[in-house]
Design a protein that fits this description.
The structure holds 2 protein chains of 2 kinds. Chain A is of the alpha/beta class. Chain A has 2 domains: 4-177, Rossmann fold, CATH 3.40.50; 208-325, Rossmann fold (3-Layer(aba) Sandwich). The longest helix of chain A has 16 residues, at 310-325. Chain A has helices at residues 18-30, 47-53, 73-87, 98-110, 223-232, 240-244, 275-281, 310-325, and strands at residues 4-8, 11-12, 15-16, 36-43, 59-64, 91-95, 114-119, 121-125, 128-135, 140-146, 154-158, 174-178, 188-194, 208-212, 235-238, 265-269, 286-291, 304-307. Chain A has 8 helices and 18 strands. In chain A, helix 2 (47-53) links the parallel strand 4 and strand 5. By secondary structure, chain B is of the alpha/beta class. In chain B, 27% of the residues lie in helices and 31% in strands. The chains are: A alpha/beta, B alpha/beta. The interface between A and B is large, with 99 and 84 residues.
């Protein structure tokens, strides 16, 4: 029997997030030929995006309400749940993002469903679907499957930047809109949102990351790294050492505690390369290390190493990239 | 305030992973309280110090997890409960069901846990639990302030900071930056030995094996291919910088 694979879409800054199109690709990889792809889109002012999303899936279920302007588990969850119920979803795909990480376990618990989180690849072996995900921040990888239980829904979150975004289908899908009333006695209210990263590239989705460690020596020491990042349209990250020393916010921390990143280029500046940091970045495609200490463990994983003072090398690199990218 | 803290014992983050017979070898490994759960323990103790009440640390895991619970007691928790039963499945569905069966019978104002565990890293259990208990939650918090029957928290959402007001009872998961966990003091370690330490199995929770059967299974484990050291660029800083950009273009082909 044909089943429905539903993607819960995410919007940021008035646009569909790329991870949503990546989730479409992932759902497509998991489903059988006869299964349908559908998407759930909830928010405020989303009508134009519903049409855009419909280019990628068979049908879009959109819920528009002022109460869905910013994410709050208390308002989003009933809206998404209702849409999934209307679509009769058998499998639900979300991005492993701030919203997806929060929403997916609520959906899974409410459906008494299994959930496989932070999936980086999907393969089929006969009729079985296997999901690969990192453990210990990528020190080891686990392949998982859902326990055989016909009729039990499945929930999957996918890590951004690991699936290619889906291509539009030949025929656009349909758009349906759903009614929604927020719960009348909200137990939690979002009072304020301060957007720290406005105009900057998100760390976990960045194609290039410029990262600083204890070697940057101070909060001001991040300035040359930020200048390099700007030229490369990169995100700035940090090691635990730099965060613990108070040079930067914990939101920048990359490692087993902190964020895991898998960019095309990772530039480690003044980072020695503790095991817990390596776990968070060693799946990057190309690693560049700049460090004064030629014995620093980071050089053991770096494709290109420069033994030298980051305050001398990084500004020179910035100039070279400016020339190369002009 | 009655605060329950959800804890997991994990490998120290400086441990390397070794596979033996298809499983992760754990002999000789240093175990710690999952770093994110440690923030939760610290926050619970600070709440008790400021507002009074009790702190109960709860863990679902093998016998060795008792050591992590004892550390929480030495830090200042009042009571520990280890839910240990091999019949409880290994996935997040199973663990959250066991916790819900236990917490459903307790009286609590706050439940605190870590944002995720540094081993499995899926970040599901605490949020599933809030759903099963029917209480509100906010994940990934970096600040918690209590006033009356309400909590005001800051939530870290990929760099954005949200201020959320929540009615208690509620569940929160700790993000880095919430606090600086204390080390257990020697008197704390001595006192911990006399604190109540409960151990529960499925029957104590009123559950059967079928109730906690997992919904997902591990097929296999594999180590990532080891990265090889690349090359160290020669010459002065200006030459190194120029060569690097050149190599990224012609050899690595990433720009």
């Amino acid at each position: 029997m044909s089943q429905t694979y539903a993607i819960v879409a995410e919007v940021r800054g008035g646009k569909l997030r790329q991870v949503t199109l990546e989730a479409v690709r992932a759902a497509n990889a998991a489903k059988r030929a006869e299964d349908r792809l559908a998407a759930v889109l909830v928010g405020h002012g989303i009508a134009p995006l519903a049409g855009e999303l419909a280019r990628y899936v068979g049908s879009v279920h959109a819920i528009e309400h002022a109460a869905l302007e910013t994410y709050n588990a208390e308002t989003y969850f009933p809206a998404v749940s209702r849409a999934l119920h209307t679509l009769n979803a058998d499998a639900v795909f979300l991005g492993h993002t701030a919203i997806g990480r929060d929403l997916a376990p609520m959906i899974a618990a409410s459906l008494a469903a299994g959930q496989i989180s932070d999936v980086i690849s999907i393969e089929k072996s006969g009729s079985e679907v296997l999901y690969t995900r990192p453990l210990y921040a990528g020190k080891v990888f686990e392949r998982k499957r859902f326990a055989p239980a016909p009729g039990t829904p499945q929930v999957i979150t996918i890590r951004p930047n690991n699936f290619a975004p889906a291509e539009p289908a030949a025929m656009p899908g349909s758009v349906a809109t759903g009614e929604y009333a927020p719960p009348c006695d909200l137990r939690s209210v979002v009072k304020d949102v301060v957007r720290k990263t406005s105009g900057k590239v998100d760390l976990t989705e960045a194609k290039i990351v410029v990262s600083g460690g204890r070697g940057v020596k101070s909060a001001d020491g991040f300035t040359p790294l930020e200048q390099l990042a700007e030229v490369l349209n990169a995100a700035v990250g940090a090691s635990r050492g730099a965060c613990d020393a108070g040079y930067c916010d914990y939101a920048l921390q990359i490692g087993q505690t902190g964020k895991v990143v898998t960019p095309e280029i990772y530039i480690a500046c003044g980072i020695s390369g503790a095991i817990q940091h390596l776990a968070g970045m060693s799946q990057s495609r190309v690693i560049i290390a700049i460090n004064k200490d030629p014995e620093a463990p980071i050089f053991k994983v770096a494709d290109y190493g420069i033994v030298g003072d980051l305050f001398e090398v990084v500004p020179l690199l910035t100039e070279e990239f400016k020339k190369a990218l002009a | 305030m009655n605060v329950y803290v959800l804890m997991k014992q994990t490998f120290d983050t400086e441990e390397k992973i070794v596979l033996r017979d298809g499983n992760i070898a754990d002999d000789g490994v240093k175990f710690v309280i999952n770093p994110y759960d440690e923030y939760a323990v610290e926050e619970a103790i600070r709440i008790k110090e400021q507002h009074g009440g009790t702190v109960v640390a709860v863990s679902v895991g093998p016998e060795r997890a008792a050591e992590a619970l004892r550390t929480a007691l030495a830090m200042g928790a009042d009571e520990a409960v280890l839910i240990s039963d091999e019949r409880i499945g290994a996935d997040e569905f199973s663990v959250s069901k066991a916790l819900a069966a236990y917490l459903g019978k307790q009286s609590y104002d706050l439940i605190l846990g870590g944002n995720f565990s540094v081993d499995n890293g899926s970040g599901q259990v605490a949020i599933r639990l809030s759903q099963l208990l029917g209480i509100p939650h906010v994940s990934s918090i970096t600040q918690l302030t209590l006033s009356g029957n309400q909590a005001v928290v800051l939530r870290d959402a990929e760099g954005d900071t949200e201020t959320v007001e929540v009615a208690l009872p509620a569940l929160f998961t700790a993000q880095q930056g919430l606090n600086e966990p204390r080390y257990p003091s020697l008197p704390g370690i001595m006192k911990a030995k006399k604190k109540p330490f409960g151990q529960l199995g499925l029957e104590d929770l009123g559950l059967s094996e079928g109730d906690t059967a997992p919904k997902t299974e591990r097929e296999s484990l594999s180590l990532p291919p080891e990265r090889k050291a690349g090359r160290i660029l020669k010459g002065g800083p200006a030459e190194q910088a120029a060569e690097l950009v050149q190599l990224l273009r012609t050899e690595a082909k990433v720009i």
